[in-house]
From TrEMBL:
GO terms for biological process: ribosome biogenesis. This is NOC4L protein. It comes from the Eukaryota. Signal peptide: none annotated. The lineage of its organism: Eukaryota, Metazoa, Chordata, Craniata, Vertebrata. The gene is Noc4l. Residues 43-192 form the CCAAT-binding factor domain.
Length: 254
C-alpha cells in the first residue's frame, strides 16, 4: 500500500522514466489498473501509463470508457493535472469507431460541468467539444435538434447515470453551450457562438489552450489597447431620473 503522496510521485514519472526502460512493461498492468480505479487525482495520473499499455502493449480494459466518464466531475476544470487529463482524453476520443451514444455522453457531461467552470477552462473545452462534433457527425443532433431546448419540457439527459449508454445524451440538446453564449467574458461568449454556424472540417488546435491560466487570461485583457467608447450623458432630473417624472415637480436632487 502506497501513501497518496507517494502514489502521485510514482505515477507522474512512470510513463516516461520507468515504462520505456522495462523489459516487460506489461508487468505494470495490475498496478496501473488498480491506481486507475482509486479515483481522483490518482486516476488522472494513471491515465498516462495506461495509455502506453493500451496503445503499445495491447492491454484490454473493458470498462475503460465507463471509468473515464466517471472521472468527469466539477473539479476536473480546476485540478493541477487538467492539461494532462484533457490531452489524453482527446486521444482516447479520437477514434471514429466509437459509438455515437458514448461520445454524446462525454459532450453532454463536459457541457453541463462547463456551466460552473472558470473562463480559462471554457476557452479550452468549447473547441474540444467542437472537435468531437467534427470527428463524430452523428452527435450533431445535439446542436441541430428541431425546436432545440425550447420544445423540451425537461432535459432527458441523466447526469447521475454511471453508464454512458444509460445517460440518454443523444435525446438531449446542447442548451448549456447556448447559455455560455451569454457569458460575462466576451471571449467565452464568442467561442460558444461558433456552434451557431456550420463547423469547418479542420479541427481546432487546443494544445496551446490546455495550460491556459486565469493569470494569463487577465494579463491578456490588461494588455489590450483601449478603444474610445462614445458616451452620452444626460443629467438626472428628479428622484428617479426619468423624463417627465411627476416626482421631478415636487423633489429635487441637491
Amino acid at each position: 500500500q502506497l501513501s497518496t503522496g507517494l502514489y502521485k510521485k510514482v505515477l507522474v514519472i512512470l510513463h516516461d522514466s520507468v515504462l520505456p526502460y522495462m523489459n516487460e512493461p506489461t508487468l505494470m498492468m495490475d498496478f496501473l489498473t488498480v491506481a486507475y480505479g482509486i479515483g481522483g487525482a490518482i486516476s488522472l495520473l494513471a491515465l498516462n501509463g495506461l495509455f502506453i499499455l493500451i496503445h503499445q502493449h495491447n492491454l484490454e480494459y473493458p470498462d475503460f470508457y465507463k471509468k473515464l466518464y466517471s472521472l468527469l466531475d466539477p473539479s476536473i476544470y480546476h485540478v493541477k493535472y487538467r492539461a494532462r487529463f484533457f490531452h489524453l482524453t482527446d486521444l482516447f476520443l479520437s477514434s471514429s469507431h466509437l459509438p455515437a451514444y458514448l461520445v454524446a455522453a462525454f459532450i453532454k457531461r463536459l457541457s453541463r460541468l462547463a456551466l460552473t467552470a472558470p473562463p480559462e477552462s471554457l476557452l479550452m473545452i468549447i473547441p474540444f467539444i467542437c472537435n468531437l462534433f467534427r470527428r463524430h457527425p452523428a452527435c450533431k443532433v445535439l446542436v441541430h435538434r428541431p425546436g432545440g431546448p425550447e420544445d423540451m419540457s425537461e432535459d432527458p439527459y441523466i447526469m447521475e447515470a454511471e453508464e454512458p449508454s444509460e445517460s440518454r445524451a443523444l435525446e438531449s440538446s446542447l442548451w448549456e453551450i447556448q447559455s455560455l453564449q451569454n457569458h460575462y467574458h466576451p471571449d467565452v461568449a464568442k467561442a460558444a457562438a461558433v456552434l451557431n454556424q456550420s463547423l469547418s472540417e479542420m479541427e481546432d488546435d487546443i494544445s496551446g489552450l490546455l495550460e491556459l491560466s486565469g493569470y494569463e487570461l487577465f494579463d491578456r485583457e490588461v494588455k489590450k489597447k483601449a478603444t474610445d467608447v462614445p458616451l452620452e450623458f444626460e443629467q438626472i432630473r428628479g428622484l428617479f431620473g426619468r423624463k417627465n417624472d411627476i416626482f421631478a415637480e415636487h423633489f429635487s436632487l441637491d
